[in-house]
Amino acid sequence: MTTWRRVNDEEQWQGIKQAVALGLASLFVGAAWMVSSRETSCEAKVDDDEDKFTPEERKALPAPGQVNNLKLYTKAEVAQHISREAGGIWVTYKDGVYDITEFIESHPGGASKILLAAGKAIDPYWNIFQQHFRTGFPLQLLESMRVGSLAPGEYVEEKQADPYAVDPIRDERLILHNSAPCNAEIPEHYIMESYLTPNELWFVRHHNPVPIIDPNNYTLTIKGKLQEKFPKHEVDVTIQCSGNRRSHFDGVKKAQGIPWNMGGVSTARFGGARLKDVLEYCGVKDPEKNGIHHVQFISQDEMLASIPIEKAFSYSGDVLLAYEMNGEEIPTDHGYPVRAVVPGYVGVRNVKWVKEVFVSEQEAEGPWQRGVAYKGFASNITDLQHLPTHVIERAAPVQEPPVTSLIVHPANNAKVHSQTLEVRREDVRVRVTGEQLKGWAYSGGGRGIVRVEVSIDGGKSWHTAELKEGSEQKLTRAWAWTFWSANVEVPKELQGKSSEIMCRATDASYNSQPEHASSIWNVRGLCNTAWHRKTVHFD
Amino acid sequence: MTTWRRVNDEEQWQGIKQAVALGLASLFVGAAWMVSSRETSCEAKVDDDEDKFTPEERKALPAPGQVNNLKLYTKAEVAQHISREAGGIWVTYKDGVYDITEFIESHPGGASKILLAAGKAIDPYWNIFQQHFRTGFPLQLLESMRVGSLAPGEYVEEKQADPYAVDPIRDERLILHNSAPCNAEIPEHYIMESYLTPNELWFVRHHNPVPIIDPNNYTLTIKGKLQEKFPKHEVDVTIQCSGNRRSHFDGVKKAQGIPWNMGGVSTARFGGARLKDVLEYCGVKDPEKNGIHHVQFISQDEMLASIPIEKAFSYSGDVLLAYEMNGEEIPTDHGYPVRAVVPGYVGVRNVKWVKEVFVSEQEAEGPWQRGVAYKGFASNITDLQHLPTHVIERAAPVQEPPVTSLIVHPANNAKVHSQTLEVRREDVRVRVTGEQLKGWAYSGGGRGIVRVEVSIDGGKSWHTAELKEGSEQKLTRAWAWTFWSANVEVPKELQGKSSEIMCRATDASYNSQPEHASSIWNVRGLCNTAWHRKTVHFD
């Protein structure tokens, strides 16, 4: 049952690539066609659950074809159109026939994915990638490529199984941004209720349905080898979506993507095998001499991501192949049976449902690593559609996030008692704890928090907050957030008035947060770490 | 001649400390009394070449004693006053007798150093630590502790040798802040003349006279073992004083310390043995299991600093015991015969004239690591004298500096041709290169530069600069600066006017620079990385 294999895979990749196949025998439920797909370039793809076109861009698109005047085709005829040479690449959707030849390179999910449907119906794919139905745009775009219709009788609507029907049942307290795929954040007032976030309240950020994995047929043999062969290593890790606080960019300009407020972050104690131990066991050594620069992860749902070998192969990098989360088996929503936990890195590199791990000369392909989805461009770039390839290639994928801090208590617009700083009871969203201002701070790369400062008068004066849980972490390996609280006397002149409260943190490398979101705005809405501001009313 | 020794040193330090004595047989020229001294706590000491009292604090000091009314003592009587129990700790300076008992813990250079003179004359020490003469304050302070005078005939003025007389002869182009000890920066217009700074133009930041070391009596055997035993490893490293740009804080409030402009930075290709190889050779292994958290360096002039073991013991940390600099032997001013080169760390951790290296449970003692000298406090802390010990202890020493970028060309107040952006010839300080705006960017911890943005209209609009030399570095191991240049069209409305030009950089962790120096001002004036601004006149 153990299948720690080293596989040379020279055909597909150049240079050295020792594939450590955490080999799963094509167990991917209901979507076996996905297993062989790989992204192949860094075109201007966005993440496949985003609606990347602005209203202006949409207007500029060609109008849908005149359905009535179009030619009729059989499915057999469509099936012959699988290459440019064969007269173009065609697909069908319901009874429509479409020539997608020129569109392929622009497909947000990657050229290789859309090519899986060449000559065939895209209906089953769209049934899984329901992002295509989030807005009417993909259908509108498709109609602009219409070349005909299926002849009468050729198209029979099949009842598609809902691939999201088996997604886990989720805690009702989560704030749902989408359900298919699930993107949900933890409500503000639960963020700091405990240092380690309960599993059921962890934020969820998915790209596809949750893979349902039968541990008995899983060759990673979670109940056996991984736990037995390598010592269990436990690390407290904060994982944050790189789009957390994206909606806080709205004041500058709306950015693309899920409009996370401040709940795309959670913390757990993960337990698992150290990736370094596993790599060494599989024979990886002297990565520098052997031209190994990255470790790539592939998930059951074909999500690809990579991290630098310096991180993966360092004993102090603390990268795990984790099978435990807060002392339990990792829940399905969070990567059961195995999640790559990459402390100090943004969420997207912490690949869930790990199917394969291998070392490589290059970083992972696909929209998440080499595409635009997780790259922070300059503020003056607003049009991803016409971005030259070399600009995309040179842009850095977000790996370690920058230093940040947030005010969790009190809530925005709360009424705050000037003497005690307690929040008045009518604000039911915030628990009255007797504590004053509180929040958390965190920086990527394990850089500990050395200071949090708060202001209750719109930035005129600043006070140093007290660092609490998490402040005992080593400044070089602080993988989890640091809670803070502050007692600030409300001056007479603010009593009975509204005021802007704010916080800012400094990490062990003395990096600090930018004052305004405008200086770091980016079209993908990543890494919004501007000083966090809220308005409160002092009574 | 080889003396790679492991020494257990349990008495002085707690826990494990495998001393890798790069053993030098007390060759420290003219100051053998220093060899056994060690700092012992983290009191509010500033660096020993700083004048730490504000004018207000000075006024509050007691007036000098009435010399005429004081008692007379013999040297033998003074020699008995070496402890509190013996009636106090006394020293003499010229013919004055002083009771320093209460002052000892406040001595900026550390209690242990001043205690070396207990019962004796401090004259020879002050002759070496000439910082005591930079202002009249130390003498004024000393006078306030006067208890008497030496009896007639007891004091004979001795001609003291000038310990700085043998300091290297330095390039006249350096901008000298002090000469004893030497603190000199590279002039702005030479900073980017070459990617690697020529050795004679490297910035110099010393605490004491330059040790003169005879390689024939040096048990590190530079000409032998270090080079033979370990493979030579070469790394391009930018070293920057953590006080670089300190004077740019002046607009907010003057900070303590040498008023560096922007020339406290240089870059070289260093060659040497990897520290990891040396530590492994000396038997260091499994640092985590063995409770090893830091590697400490001691220099010939008793400067102490340490770095985390995660950095020192990582193959990708690239820490060197360097003996070459730009292909030459390391010059005396830069650490001959061996300098610890710690890529991605501030200058002070790159210890010169290394005498001893050892692993430790704790970080180094002394003012440079545990004292206030290299700690960045909150903006509202302006008085280091009354800072509680726990505040100092909890503050983090500057290790990796934050992301920064600077405009080197054109010079401040330059007249710039609006069409070509060339600087007019009458500005002789800047070479006309035909290039437009240019500068460099750098971040600590090897975090590569992913973007530099420039504005020529005071921040209203921003342009992405082109990244040049240095941009080919790995984003995870970018130890040297990245040069940049930008061609920005001067709009009609700016022509014939003065304008503020500025730059800001983003590193691979998406950290960015603070907009204003006010948000990061700190009393020690460290890590000023605010957007760099200059005024130019477009003709």
TrEMBL record, chains A, B:
Q: Which cofactor does it need?
A: Mo-molybdopterin; heme b
Which terms does the UniProt entry file under GO BP?
A: sulfur compound metabolic process
- A Gene Ontology cellular-component term: mitochondrial intermembrane space
The record places domain Cytochrome b5 heme-binding at 70-151
Pfam families given in the database record: Cyt-b5, Mo-co_dimer, Oxidored_molyb
**Quick one: which pathway?**
Energy metabolism; sulfur metabolism
Bilayer-spanning residue ranges: 20-36
Q: Which UniProt keywords apply?
A: Heme, Iron, Membrane, Metal-binding, Mitochondrion, Molybdenum, Oxidoreductase, Transmembrane, Transmembrane helix
Say if the entry is tagged with keyword Metal-binding. Answer: yes
Q: What is its EC number?
A: 1.8.3.1
Against Gene3D superfamilies, the record matches this protein to: 2.60.40.650, Cytochrome b5-like heme/steroid binding domain, Oxidoreductase, molybdopterin-binding domain
Q: Which InterPro entries match?
A: Cyt_B5-like_heme/steroid-bd, Cyt_B5-like_heme/steroid_sf, Cyt_B5_heme-BS, Ig_E-set, MoCF_OxRdtse_dimer, Mopterin_OxRdtase_euk, OxRdtase_Mopterin-bd_dom, OxRdtase_Mopterin-bd_sf
Q: Tell me the compartments it is located in.
A: Mitochondrion intermembrane space
- A single MF term (Gene Ontology): sulfite oxidase activity
| Protein origin, superkingdom | Eukaryota
Identification of the protein by name = sulfite oxidase
Query: What organism does the UniProt record list as the source?
Result: Guillardia theta (strain CCMP2712) (Cryptophyte)
